From TrEMBL:
<comment type="similarity">
    <text>Belongs to the GART family.</text>
</comment>
<comment type="similarity">
    <text>Belongs to the metallophosphoesterase superfamily. YfcE family.</text>
</comment>
<feature type="binding site">
    <location>
        <position position="100"/>
    </location>
    <ligand>
        <name>(6R)-10-formyltetrahydrofolate</name>
    </ligand>
</feature>
<protein>
    <recommendedName>
        <fullName>Phosphoribosylglycinamide formyltransferase</fullName>
    </recommendedName>
</protein>
<comment type="function">
    <text>Catalyzes the transfer of a formyl group from 10-formyltetrahydrofolate to 5-phospho-ribosyl-glycinamide (GAR), producing 5-phospho-ribosyl-N-formylglycinamide (FGAR) and tetrahydrofolate.</text>
</comment>
<feature type="site" description="Raises pKa of active site His">
    <location>
        <position position="143"/>
    </location>
</feature>
<feature type="active site" description="Proton donor">
    <location>
        <position position="102"/>
    </location>
</feature>
<feature type="binding site">
    <location>
        <position position="58"/>
    </location>
    <ligand>
        <name>(6R)-10-formyltetrahydrofolate</name>
    </ligand>
</feature>
<feature type="domain" description="Formyl transferase N-terminal">
    <location>
        <begin position="2"/>
        <end position="180"/>
    </location>
</feature>
<feature type="binding site">
    <location>
        <begin position="11"/>
        <end position="13"/>
    </location>
    <ligand>
        <name>N(1)-(5-phospho-beta-D-ribosyl)glycinamide</name>
    </ligand>
</feature>
Amino acid sequence: KQICVLVSGSGSNLQRIIDATISGEIKNAEVNLVIADRDCYALKRAANHEIRTLLIPRGKGFSAKLSEAVSTDTDLVVLAGFLSILNNEFCEKFKGKIINIHPALLPKFGGKGMWGNHVHEAVLKAGEKKSGATVHYVTSGIDEGEIILQKSFDITSNDSVENISAKVHEIEHEIFPKAIDQILNNTGKIAFITDL
Ligand code: GRF
């Protein structure tokens, strides 16, 4: 099975996914293309594994170029810290085959502006008792697609944006490969929610 990963940042989730395809945690699959919308460390990680990379900067024709670059044979398009919005046409073309990881417990704390530490700031400000990460299908509505896998942890009074971010990353690295294996290999229940 062929996985295409879209990235914009450091790519620690990309690294986990690549490692999981190699170790067999994600079975019968390989990352065969990594696309970035900007120069970022994730591209270097892909290159280290001799995975084909493409840099498609945002701007005129972005969605069309992206759509052209992702082969229709692709089994799963994985957004791993990808900061551009996919247009309706792209979402329709790969309907049911695009997933994203979000650094909070959707359906709360999703949508425009809810990325990076902004999410954790909003969670803390709202006095939430829990946060976590969510793997979900991508539709043209931002962070609105069906939830695939979610895991949470309790927020304590000592928690700061920085350590919430670290805990969320840890959970992401655990649930993302799991969700990808489930989707590609039909192992276990697809949509479920679990607690840490
Ligand atoms: C993750 O926290 C993810 O939830 C968000 O962007 C971050 C990407 O981190 N969408 P990395 O580049 O995988 O380290």
